[in-house]
């Protein structure tokens, strides 16, 4: 297999992939904020939540749903700041994955990544991070 990367480029490609994967896992996990509500453990992230309160109209009380799930819609995310964070973090993870997968392909394909492409990819990684 021919490679268009130097040894430093191969290390960069694998570290890029590990960082992108870690960022994506962090983005999809609902454990950004931890706390308790109604004597239950509660956690939520930008678009996922675990153990959240729901109004039970038949009993006229608030009960805790003890499961994890996404918000029903984008507008159901609690605040505009969290919505912006969801979009920005999602785009960042997408950019990081794009660069990492391209770099990994450069390990296997000759003449895929040139010096200019490497510099542009580094800039995209900086923006994605």
TrEMBL record:
Q: Name one GO cellular component term.
A: membrane
Q: Which residues form a coiled coil?
A: none
Instruction: Print the keywords alphabetically.
Output: Membrane, Transmembrane, Transmembrane helix
Q: How does it sit in the membrane?
A: Multi-pass membrane protein
The places in or outside the cell where this protein is found are: Membrane
TM region(s), chain numbering: 87-109
Q: Record's Gene3D superfamilies?
A: 1.20.140.150
| Principal subcellular localization | membrane
Q: Is Hydrolase one of the keywords UniProt gives this record?
A: no
Please identify the protein, giving its name as recorded: LHPL6 protein
């Amino acid at each position: 297999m021919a490679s268009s990367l130097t040894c430093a480029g191969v290390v960069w490609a694998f570290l890029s992939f590990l960082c992108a994967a870690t960022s994506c896992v962090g983005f999809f996990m609902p454990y950004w904020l931890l706390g308790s509500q109604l004597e239950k453990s509660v956690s939520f992230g930008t678009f996922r939540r675990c153990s959240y309160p729901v109004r039970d109209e038949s009993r006229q009380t608030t009960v805790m749903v003890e499961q994890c799930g996404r918000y029903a819609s984008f507008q159901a995310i609690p605040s505009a700041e969290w919505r912006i964070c969801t979009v920005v973090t999602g785009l960042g993870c997408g950019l990081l994955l794009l660069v990492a997968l391209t770099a990994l392909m450069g390990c296997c394909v000759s003449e895929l990544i040139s010096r200019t492409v490497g510099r542009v990819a580094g800039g995209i990684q900086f923006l994605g991070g």
